[in-house]
Design goal:
Structural class of chain A: alpha/beta
Structural class of chain B: alpha/beta
Order of helices and strands of chain B: EEEHHEEEHEHEHEHEEEHEHEHHH
Distance between the termini of chain B: 22 Å
Shape of chain A: globular
Oligomer: heterodimer
Number of strands of chain B: 14
Shape of chain B: globular
Order of helices and strands of chain A: EEEEEEHEHEHEHEEHHEHEEEHE
Helix content of chain A: 10-25%
Amino acid sequence: MTAPFGRRLGEVSANRASGGYRVFSLLDSEGPPPEPGQFYMLAAEREWGEGGERPYLPRAFSVAMAAEERGAVRLDFLAEAVGPGTDRLCRLEPGERAWINGPLGRPFSTLSGLAPGAAGAILVGGGIGIAPLAILRERLTRGGVPQRVLLGFRDREHSGGLDDLFPCSELRLASEDGHAGHKGYVTDLLAVMLEGDDAGTSAVYACGPPAMLEAVRLMCAERGVACELAMESPMACGFGACFGCAVPLADGGYMRLCVDGPVVRAEQLETALVAGAGHR
Amino acid sequence: VTDTFCGLELDHPVINGSGTFDAIAAGRTFGAELHERFPFSAFVSKTITLEPRAGNPPPRLWETPAGMINSIGLPNKGLEGFIAADLPVLAKLPVPLIVSVMGTSPEQFTRLVEGVAAETAVAALELNVSCPNVHSGLIVGEQPEETLALLEALRPLTEKPLIVKLTPNVADPAAVALAAEEGGADAVSLINTLKAAAIDPATLRPWLGAGRGGLSGPAVRAVAVEQVRAVSTAVGIPVIGMGGVTNGADALEMIAAGATLVAVGTENFRDPAAGSRVAAELANLLEQRGFDGAGAARGASLDSPAGA
């Protein structure tokens, strides 16, 4: 389903702390429900570009969860205040409104679409990148697709969203400081999993920082495991207009991450180390 | 009131800046609603070059106070690819199509203008002259002599309107505009982006993959208004004013500075339907102020109105 043409205002229905992150919710009364992996361009209605300052452009956010609420689609987003745009969005108060454009971009494939014959899915998330895996997990669960969820965090201040976004889920955790689960990287957990029979029977969905995605990409390529990565890149528009979100392709040239992604097949990529990802 | 521009009948005076809206990608994203509520009264394509271009290495964007820097590098399918793949889709848009072309020599420009102008779906051409001529090493749009010579070479090739996109990175944009007019241009559009750079605070190296880029958005609007004013005072051909237009009041300012049409650029990134909103706000403002259409307000700020 296509997105409504033009940005629109959605009411903020909730904004709560979740570990070191915020989870805020917007009510979209016009758009269709998003597919897992799709994203929205978001900006606060007030205090956004006022006085000629940053933030000026809307910010791209993968949707973490969607549900019907009060006759609208409630969209949940996971956020961390790392710059003027995310800072403003983290301060949204219930009753305020925010500009919404979306749902945008190419979603995650179904398991059979990604790897015909695969018995189950492995979801690998890092930091704020766990967001799109939450809605993906919900969709897979509803479809009866077995899945395992591996999530990694840097430290307690850079973690959250677990209770909000992965309720009643069996999670395998990793943290660099050892505050939760395995002390180390989430890709350590994936490596162990792919050592066994899983490499032949699973497909991998991943979202996280560029270094994590690159490790997942190389690991899956080496073992011939089908893999999709949800990525980020500096993005001005989100709908193919600005050509700013260029990501280099394995066979030369670039894709526009907003319309050809943000979910991409790992083998399409020259590298997952996207220049400029994480700009504040 | 319809607006007439170089013989084209337009529903309103708001179009898009080249490279700020991809009607094909937007059609895939927004579906039939895009055509039903098409935001511009004419559509300007992204710039086409003779050969395909991949564009600049990322990062390509940097947000600034009230604006952004881009260094996209004109990725496009090349003339053949454009005509084969893109033109059939753009031909179905509900508004006239203006195709932007850029060559690095008069010979390249000749082939582009001949190839594009021969297509019936193309209503007008915009010449992107913000690129060096390989023969002289000079950026065409920075030199009145180069601009005049290019127009003299291209003018005989087509009767379709030729619009010259002016760069703001010159001391005297009106001199270049006059050269374009003397060479037979039907209109000029301005401003292109202002040369700009950003330094990565972590590495203290240039942030953009290509080292530098162009600034756009409200940050450049006051510069654009002055250049539109200066050019409109100098030339008799119509002027398309752009640079940081975000609402109807900004559009009216451009018109009062002498613009016949106004283009929305960076604001499209914030709101895909910005063109319709700006056009509606402009129409309201014109009515409130007692102007019978944009033409009646054109050049209101000028001592000697454009074309007088």
